[in-house]
């Protein structure tokens, strides 16, 4: 009862709307095809085997078939959550398809059980009474319980958890709904599911229910329930003929489920790997299925022997299918290999520079827009393509979302719509504020996903859009922000930049007017120590010098003999070539300066940054450097935000007390590039 309610209360019905046409077709196919194929297999079994199958008569075998052909959303959600696939493309398709199938299934089931009396009795006044009470119960749950939930929401301050009295009220409503369901002729699970569907998905519900009631259910009630299930399974009552017969039926239904997803998905040109993964997901069974099996056993709709075989079969098949899904998804992720250098240093000048920005907090949006403004080109020689990803942790709705925002279309159904719309409007104003609007394109997304797998949405979009750079906004260096930075850096198909604003960057809205009045100067420093990340940093800094109000100073750190600190000969050669190209390209630019600074050890670097750091509005550094660098020895020991690299972490440290914003850059990893 509690498990059914908690799992259903997590369901966001909006996933059906966002699933699109394919989800509806998959859901309808998943609702009909397994049942039809299973009915044919059931007919074949009963016509070729004399007597009963596992002590089930044909009617009981039909009940078994009906429940085996159903796929439950709660089971798929639990599996995808454990496999960290909730915000993956196969995960979204599976959830939306199963949700549609569940809607068809529950609708058909409620109609059938509600009007069952009309099918088995003569028409009279007593015939209408059971039907009327069932309809009255469902309407009563909506009319009575929904206002109570809304009252609880109003009585709970924003950001606070549910009170104990409110939890008691919810438990009383749940017990009452399930009791009345049994009284009017419904299975008890109908009351808990109906109450779960009318439960608001906004705070303090959602994670509040899971934390309060769910933890007790899964930690205390669930083990007891599983022990009770195991006590009902008698291995010695099985015989080979019954096992073979039921396994044939179960396997046939599983194959039908697989085909009902794969065939429509392939018709709609879904990648075959994704279609196969979703096909295996819908074949997985879980505790929710076992709960239904137990309900059938309680009503004596199946025998004890059939119950035991079904439970063992569900356990074995689900273990196999889960392992297959995990390995297939891992293989699909490894196939995300790009066949070109997606970096700022190597991007083609005649094509737009593609930048993806992602951020947790709204406060990081203005500095990100300022960096994007610096990256634009006043002339029409080079355009800028921007993808914005607003990241929200999966707390309020337990269904992962990837929402694309269109200008003028607001997502009013979401409780976070105002925040999302404000961010989308800010980026749209950024685009419309340029004289040459055709040179700046903007796409805005909102990704709602678990914190641990949030980077997958970012990297998948970067791979799909073929971006040259991902800019990750960091506000306070929280654990969630740092985890996001680490995951994006490790899995990104392109270069990555981490921006930490410390208040010196001007508002991008004022930059256009200031440029016309020549009243603003932005001082940028690029620290060049050597290596791929520093070369990428320098390329991005040179891009910014296209703005007339930008002054760029490049600090090339060398040892006492004016040579690079690098030991790698190939890297030294690449650095030398990069510096020479930089000298030639900026020879006629009066807003660019190159200084060679003698640095022997870490203390020299600290003194340099302490003396000159506050002269700049933005300091750009590479993240990774050779471990053998003497100048960086000892800096990592006191690192607080290691995601910025040794120098980047030093720039934002409390010891230096610098006000300059920091942009730490990592060039595209060589492991994600497959040479052609």
TrEMBL record:
Membrane topology summary: Multi-pass membrane protein
Keyword Isomerase: no
Main subcellular localisation: membrane
A Pfam family the protein falls into: CHX17_C
Cation/H+ exchanger transmembrane domain boundaries: 73-325
Family per similarity comment: Belongs to the monovalent cation:proton antiporter 2 (CPA2) transporter (TC 2.A.37) family. CHX (TC 2.A.37.4) subfamily.
InterPro entries attached to this UniProt entry: Cation/H_exchanger_TM (IPR006153), CHX17_C (IPR057290), CPA2_transporter (IPR050794), Na+/solute_symporter_sf (IPR038770)
A cellular component term, taken from the record's GO annotations: membrane
Protein species of origin: Arabidopsis thaliana
Alphabetical UniProt keywords: Ion transport, Membrane, Potassium, Potassium transport, Transmembrane, Transmembrane helix, Transport
Intracellular or extracellular location(s): Membrane
GO molecular function, one term: antiporter activity
GO terms for biological process, alphabetical: potassium ion transport; proton transmembrane transport
Record field: transmembrane: 23-49, 93-115, 135-153, 165-190, 213-231, 243-262, 268-288, 309-332
UniProt domain Cation/H(+) antiporter C-terminal: residue ranges: 524-668
Protein name in UniProt: (thale cress) hypothetical protein
